[in-house]
Automatic annotation (TrEMBL):
<dbReference type="GO" id="GO:0044780">
    <property type="term" value="P:bacterial-type flagellum assembly"/>
</dbReference>
<keyword id="KW-0143">Chaperone</keyword>
<protein>
    <recommendedName>
        <fullName>Flagellar secretion chaperone FliS</fullName>
    </recommendedName>
</protein>
<dbReference type="GO" id="GO:0071973">
    <property type="term" value="P:bacterial-type flagellum-dependent cell motility"/>
</dbReference>
<keyword id="KW-0963">Cytoplasm</keyword>
<dbReference type="InterPro" id="IPR003713">
    <property type="entry name" value="FliS"/>
</dbReference>
<dbReference type="GO" id="GO:0005829">
    <property type="term" value="C:cytosol"/>
</dbReference>
<comment type="similarity">
    <text>Belongs to the FliS family.</text>
</comment>
<keyword id="KW-1005">Bacterial flagellum biogenesis</keyword>
<dbReference type="InterPro" id="IPR036584">
    <property type="entry name" value="FliS_sf"/>
</dbReference>
<dbReference type="Pfam" id="PF02561">
    <property type="entry name" value="FliS"/>
</dbReference>
Length: 141
C-alpha cells in the first residue's frame, strides 16, 4: 500500500524531529543533491519545463544558504570559514547555471556535495550524536 502525501509528510516530520544534528545535516545534503539531480536531468534532456529547473535550483540554493548561516564561525574557525566560502561558490555556480540553463556547473556542485555528504555520514556514524531530549516527554520507565 502506497503512502499518501500526508503520511509521507508526517513521516518526514518525525524523522527530522528525532534526528541528531549530524543526521539533519545529512538530510539537508540529501535534499540538495536530489533537487540538483532533478535540474540536471531536465536540462540534459532538453526539457522545456524550465520552471521546474528553476524551482529545483532555487530550493537547492535555499538549503545551501541555510547551511551557510548555520556555521559556527567562532567554534569552527578555519574549517567553518572554508565551508562558508565553498557554499558561496556553490551558490554562485548554481546562479550562473540557472541563468545559462547549463547542467555542467550543476553537476560539478552535485559531485562536491556528494563528497561532503559522504564525509558527514562517516562522521555521524562514528560519533554517537543524539537528538536533544524533548521537555515534557520521557521514554524512561
Amino acid at each position: 500500500m502506497a503512502m499518501t502525501n500526508y503520511q509521507a509528510a508526517a513521516y518526514k516530520q518525525v524523522r527530522v524531529k528525532t534526528a541528531g544534528p549530524g543526521q539533519i545535516v545529512i538530510m539537508l545534503y540529501d535534499e540538495t543533491i536530489r533537487q540538483l539531480k532533478i535540474a540536471v536531468e531536465l536540462l540534459e534532456t532538453g526539457s522545456k519545463q524550465l520552471d521546474k529547473v528553476n524551482n529545483a535550483i532555487l530550493k537547492a540554493r535555499d538549503i545551501i544558504t541555510e547551511l551557510m548561516v548555520s556555521l559556527d564561525m567562532e567554534q569552527g574557525g578555519d574549517f567553518a570559514q572554508g565551508m562558508f566560502s565553498l557554499y558561496v561558490w556553490f551558490n554562485e555556480q548554481l546562479l550562473e547555471a540557472n541563468i545559462q540553463k547549463d547542467p555542467k556547473p550543476v553537476q560539478v556542485v552535485v559531485n562536491h556535495l556528494t563528497e561532503i555528504r559522504e564525509a558527514w555520514a562517516q562522521i555521524a556514524g562514528k560519533v554517537d550524536v543524539k537528538p536533544q531530549e524533548r521537555p515534557g516527554v520521557s521514554i524512561r520507565g
